[in-house]
Amino acid sequence: TTPLIFDTDPGVDDAQAIAIALAHSEIELLGMTTTYGNVDIETATTNALLLAELADQRIPVAQGAAAPLVKLKHPAPAHIHGDNGLGNHPLPTPSHRAETISAPQFIVEQVNARPGEVTLVAVGPLGNLAAALQLDPGIIDRVKQVVVMGGSIREGGNVTPVAEANIFNDPHAAARVLTAGWPLTLVGLDATHRCVLGPAQMDKIAAAQGKLGEVLAGSYAFYRAFYRTALDIDGCCPHDSCALAWLMRPELFTTVRGHLNVVTEGDAEGQTLFAPQERAFIDPRWARTPLVDVCMNAEGEAVVDWIVETLT
Ligand code: BDR
Ligand code: CA
Questions:
Q1: Which residues belong to the signal peptide in this entry (predicted)?
Q2: Phi, psi (5° rounding) for residue 212?
Q3: 3-state DSSP call for residue 294?
Q4: Could you please report the per-residue DSSP string of 192-245?
Q5: Secondary structure (3-state) at 299
Q6: Using one digit for the tens of pLDDT, what is the confidence trace for 50-73?
Q7: Annotation says 239 is catalytic
Q8: How far does the centroid of ligand 1 lie from the alpha carbon of residue 262, in Å?
Q9: ∠ at Cα 33 (15, 252), nearest 5°?
Q10: ipTM of the complex
Q11: Ligand 2 center to residue 257 CA distance, Å?
Q12: 241 and which of 17, 54, 104, 283 could share a cystine (Cβ 3.0–4.6 Å)?
């Protein structure tokens, strides 16, 4: 099994990914760490606690970043995920509370307790991972691997013409995390935009997921309306689930090794820039950042089938 920490800002597509992490027999979910992003930090934590409870699982949740490291916080995009992050579907109050330690502390403790074993999957802005690195840079050598849903190389952005939301929401944190020198894979829009979960597939998942499924159904309805009006797509891109799909089924993705940089200022803030390893010699400055793996493509239908299979 794969022991992992899921760092998240739930969020409709986060909620689906959480359902996968809870359901998959080969994933051992050590805990969830929360960040602001799709919603404010308190809502993110409440949602993470609630989603685990709806699946009848008691998973530690540690609260983290309330704002970006450097830039000013933008208001959460309520038109995409709803005010409550889950499509404004009415939600009960969770009965458990978050851990007393913070998200970065939780990450550091768990990674150090099992050197070489723990995978970090981050699907929101990257402040928690950046803070964990600052707290204990030793985790760079002790983590098994880091998988980040974020960024866009050739696909263009989804919040600005060039920037993807998770990177844009905290570019300074992203720059630290993506160039820290730990084994890292970036699953960005080049892969996630190849994957479209259709209405019938959403219904199937919702029907199979019990109490959690009811919340997924309500949140899908809202997310679907956003995709229809904003993007003219009937369905949605399961961005955050793609990070888990890469982890469990990497053969469904085209992954390229190279050097990554993040633009932190100006009109292109939040853009991820990538030079494949064999092209870096053209300008040696590019070789200054450590090598990472970047997903450039995905077999969309097969990824979506994997998501549906895992949740039904
Ligand atoms: C990412 O941004 C958020 O809105 C989603 O949850 C996902 O993590 C996609 O750009
Ligand atoms: Ca997310």
A1: none
A2: -65, -35
A3: strand
A4: HTT--B-HHHHHHHHHHSHHHHHHHHHHHHHHHHHIIIII--SSB--HHHHHHH
A5: coil
A6: 999 999 999 999 999 999 999 988
A7: yes
A8: 17
A9: 55
A10: 0.99
A11: 24
A12: 17
